[in-house]
Fold this protein.
Amino acid sequence: MTALLEASDLRRHFGGVAAVDGCSLAVEEGTITALIGPNGSGKTTVFNLITGYLSADSGTVRFLGKTLRRPDPTALFRGGLSRTFQQARVFAALTLVENLVVAIQQPRRGLFRAATSQADRARAVEVLDEFGLAHLADRRAGELSFGQRKLLEFATVLMGRPRIVLLDEPTSGVNPVMVETMERHIRELHAQGMTFFVVEHDMHMVMRLCNPVIVLDHGAKIMEGAPGIVQRDPAVLDAYLGA
Amino acid sequence: MRTLGAGGLARGLGFTACLLAFPFLFPEHWVVNIGIFTVMYMVLATSWNILGGFAGYLSLGHAAFFGLGAYAEAIAFEHIGIGSGYRPFAVLPLIGIGVAVLAVPIAWVALRVRAATFAIVTISLLFIVQQLAFNLHSLTNGAQGLSMPIPPFSVSTYELPFYLAMVGVWAAAVLASWYVATGKIGLMLFAIRDDEERARGVGVRVTFAKMVAFVLSAGLAGMAGGIFAYYEGFIYPQFAIDPLVTIGAVLMAFLGGRGTIWGPTLGALILVPTQQYLAFSQGASQLYLIAYAAVFLTIMLIMPRGIIPSVADFVVARRPKNGAPRSGEPATPVTGVPS
């Protein structure tokens, strides 16, 4: 296997606080890699640095073997790297269909065509149907529940036909049925060849879904391995339990 | 393929027919004069709305492009000698394109910031353009201003060509708004208005979409400025590049419904004649400004989202539940475009 996504020696300070402190990691193609760690360990910041939502003080990101000096979210999305957020970010004033259609890539001259073509709509409704949201296709995203927003956000990033999806706490704040739905979708898409890099607090889900698991503490990687090994590692237990 | 519903088409054509018939039904000079300024603000508010309403970028420098258009028209007469009569109208498309081209580098710089910073950058731009008009003396004649030729139009219908030209630019602005709002570019602008950072993250060509909105908005305002200069016959910096023109256009867009196609037109239709009537009835006491503000604030208190979105909400809320939108259904169509 080859590393689809790599981060080397990433550093980011907020004032005097080192949120990410020399973090290096790699996500192999075809895996569901987890990034775990106690609260404040820098997981989301690492995601933000990799995806260009924050600029790193130093360090490099490599995607598809290419070094990105300043990762750009738009270019990454077009290149096959998408992400979701801990607090689902959807376009509240747009319908569900429009949320998905806006993520379909267009050449510049296509930008002056009608907002939603028949083909775009059909594809969007098909994806919404997979997530059980087709009956809400023409409702505003702002009317959805938190869990439904998470599903919509996940569905939206799939419109870019990504090779890798970074999921930031996909199940936080959602009910158990929704967790099951989310997990099923991750498994199905993974079976189709999609790579996932997941920040997650639900350890049961991490243990049954992810391999390998990367553990972060104080902004740096402290352990990486199979879930069973990570679970018993003294350094990990120490980070989590403060034992 | 864009589709325009029969109702929307009928409303559009009916309203345009009313606008065209207006100076023939009410040919008094002072009435048509108010008509010209009303349609001028309809253009300004509609064009401002393409960027401020659709993309959520609240520009306070719109009058800079209006002023650039006015000066372009006056300079074309003074330095190029385009002549009088209908010829100054013929160059309006060129003026629109010229102002739009000038707006490209401005947009490239200004659109790097958002929200309050963008508003400050754009109002600074307005004063920069005003200062340029003062200081580029050989081109603009500085504070003394530039004169336009007196058109050889019949005295009895003197205002009519200006009015009809302004209606033409207004129609272009509404069509441009509709074309943008119902296109992919519009969807991108609405996404940017909701969450620009997220829009970037799902591959939206954010910079390109904002540039298109900015440039289109500027070009349309420039054309209105060209007609204004010719109609007034004389322009000078404070008059052609006036912050109050921007403020007026923004107020009108907010009043009618920001982000809708017809809202800015409706806002101008209410506010400009109201302002003129109050100025006339209150005389030179300046009390009319207080009355003008009271009208605006009263409507905004009752309908804080603007008239069109608020009325649409009200209509949907009263609609029978069977068959159509459910309770809580978005009243205003998502794109903010009235059907």
